[in-house]
Design brief:
This protein has 17 helices and 25 strands. The protein has 609 residues and is of the alpha+beta class. A hairpin with a 6-residue loop joins strand 8 and strand 9.
Length: 609
């Protein structure tokens, strides 16, 4: 497996740092000031949510604060961690509930706070947090052994998430009871392969085994088990992925699920929690299995689905995004979504449910943490703009990746060493690349390219990938434009309707109010051909800007007949009435999917009238 570098050895650069700074200035960096479920949580002695929301928020804000070296955010995160540890009971129980309520407390929140404490230890090396985590897991093991705690509901379907903090502890102390706890969790946990048939036909009902966030987490279960227990890995994740992709896949690498699986229709929703959980799952699977397919899937999701479902300033987000999303207007009657409400696709503070409000924070920071991975012989680099400061042997090494990837398909790596030292510099060649050039010379297309040598002083390696914008056929039979890791879409001119109000004691007030997005331009088009022109622009203050995208495509489109979905006037039908053009071709500008908040992504390939 590849190993993560120390949490403080990586620093974001370029657009990635800018994206994290936008996040810190937005909802992520301010939730503890404005949102009752964080500000007044039972985890810190308040009377609000005492389950998953504070752990979710900490899971993102801790790496965000440390990656940016933001002292104010670090201090506020420390306050929460210390309050949680202050509230830990003598027997190790750490969750905020009375002793007589423990048997009915869903221990998913315990798994999650365990992950948070392990993450916190990676950044701070806190002995107190490590001891608190050890005691919490010891308490869980003891109570499960005695039958006082049993897995049910979320804990049953997310049992493997607890193996992440267990693995952290095992690497530190190598105590066998930790493996025993892992086996107990697996024995009581859900067996996902047994539900495969349930994923093939979307239903208008809510279940744990079709819940999209559970499934986003699920793919890692075998890998984390095998890593901890030393069992052979059979790659069940790939089998499960193929089934879900076939019956519920989207053009941006995610799965439909507005909250539960919703089929392959391009007008169905995908919950934001599932986007960031899929990202984290792909990050872990890439590190554990070394299979580059997980890195390619990770990029498809991270560069498209994640930025699409948050506003440019990251003060608001959707619960559900749609691949073909022509409006984000509250449904006046029955919700269009199978298992979510009429406001789920609005941009706001907590549309539908507040889980995504807390959980979306982990997406970009954990992605940045995976910019470099440690191999047996050296360093595996991504194309992300970031810097690694580490030691190889006893020699200080700095590797700086200077890149505008994915907006430009190139990266320059500067390697600086304190004294001559031998190691490998390795990077992945994406499978979409038509050509790869290293220092100006073409190299053979394979999954990885490795430079193994003695490095001396300061040296630079330049990497360029070659691709051309092209059409990809989707399960619907419609087409999507792809260029490198980016999916492109026709942006729809948008008017934002601000909604400020208070509901259930939670205030929506600018900049954390809700918005309806109302279309102002035509959306009924098809591709007139497969020729596209790349237009490179300048970076703005928001890397995935909806106003000034850093790259666009010029395309010829034709108008087509396309109705609304039956019974709705703000949702496009999943297919046009025909693929025949009803007007002359016009030139349009396509935006990266993540930059287009209202968009048409899947469209037919048509001929001119």
């Amino acid at each position: 497996m590849y190993h993560y570098f120390g949490a403080n050895e990586i620093r974001p650069q370029g657009w990635l740092k800018k994206q994290l700074e936008v996040q810190a200035a937005g909802l992520s960096g301010n939730l503890d000031k404005i949102w009752p479920d964080i500000r007044d949580s039972a985890w810190i002695g308040g009377d609000k949510d005492g389950w998953e929301r504070v752990p979710y928020w900490l899971d993102g804000v801790i790496p965000l604060a440390h990656l940016l070296e933001n002292e104010d955010m670090k201090t506020r995160a420390d306050k929460y961690i210390n309050a949680i540890l202050d509230g830990q009971q003598e027997d190790g129980w750490i969750c905020p509930c009375a002793q007589e309520e423990r048997g009915k407390y869903d221990v998913w929140a315990l798994f999650l706070i365990g992950k948070v404490l392990a993450l916190y230890c990676e950044f701070t090396e806190s002995a107190r947090a490590k001891d608190g985590l050890y005691r919490a897991m010891e308490c869980l093991n003891r109570m499960m052994q005695a039958g006082e705690v049993k897995l049910f509901d979320w804990g049953e379907f997310r049992w493997f998430e607890c193996l992440i903090p267990i693995q952290f502890l095992y690497e530190d102390c190598h105590e066998e009871w930790l493996k025993d706890l892992a086996r107990r969790l697996r024995e009581q946990g859900a067996d996902y392969p047994s539900y495969i048939e349930e994923w093939k036909r979307p239903m208008n009902k809510w279940t744990f085994y079709t819940h999209i966030v559970n499934l986003g987490m699920m793919f890692k279960y075998e890998a984390v088990c095998c890593e901890l227990l030393g069992e052979p890995y059979e790659n069940r994740a790939e089998e499960l992925w193929q089934v879900l992709e076939r019956y519920n896949g989207t053009a941006v690498g995610t799965f439909t699920g507005d909250e539960c699986l919703s089929g392959i229709a391009n007008n169905q929703g995908t919950e934001l929690c599932s986007v960031v959980e899929l990202m984290y799952t792909c990050e872990l699977l890439y590190a554990i299995t070394q299979d580059p397919v997980w890195a390619q899937r990770l990029e498809r999701i991270a560069f498209n689905a994640l930025p699409a479902t948050v506003s440019d300033d990251m003060w608001t987000h959707q619960y559900d995004q749609m691949v073909n999303q022509i409006a984000c207007i509250r449904f006046p009657g029955k919700s269009f979504f199978r298992t979510n409400g009429e406001e789920s696709h609005l941009f706001g503070l907590e549309p539908n449910f507040g889980c995504c409000t807390a959980n979306f924070n982990q997406g970009w920071p954990k992605f940045a943490m995976s910019a470099f991975l440690q191999t047996e012989k050296g360093v595996l680099c991504s194309m992300l703009p970031a810097q690694l400061k580490t030691a190889i042997g006893k020699t200080g090494v700095t590797i700086t990746a200077d890149s505008d990837y994915p907006f430009r398909l190139a990266c320059s790596y500067t390697v600086e060493v304190e004294e001559p030292v031998s190691f490998e510099l390795k990077f992945r060649i994406p499978r979409w690349a038509k050509e790869c050039r290293v220092n100006g010379e073409p190299v053979a297309l394979s999954d990885f390219y490795t430079i193994e040598k003695e490095w001396n002083g300061t040296e630079t390696v330049s990497v360029v990938y070659v691709d051309a914008p092209h059409l990809e056929t989707q399960a619907s039979g419609l087409q999507t434009v792809v260029y490198g890791p980016l999916v492109f879409a026709l942006p729809i001119e948008t008017a934002y309707k601000k909604l400020e109000f208070t509901r259930d004691g939670v205030e929506r007030k600018f900049p954390y109010c809700d918005y309806e997005l109302i279309p102002q331009s035509e959306w009924r088009y098809g591709f007139a051909g497969d020729a596209f022109t790349v237009c490179e622009g300048e970076q703005s203050s928001a890397p995935f800007s909806s106003q000034c995208p850093p790259v666009t495509l010029k395309a010829k489109l034709c108008p087509v007949e396309w109705d609304f979905a039956e019974g709705y006037d703000s949702v496009s039908d999943k297919l046009p009435k025909s693929d025949r053009a009803v007007g002359a071709a016009v030139e349009k500008e396509l935006y990266p999917y993540g930059c287009a908040k209202l968009r048409m992504t899947e469209m037919p390939l048509v001929g001119q009238e």
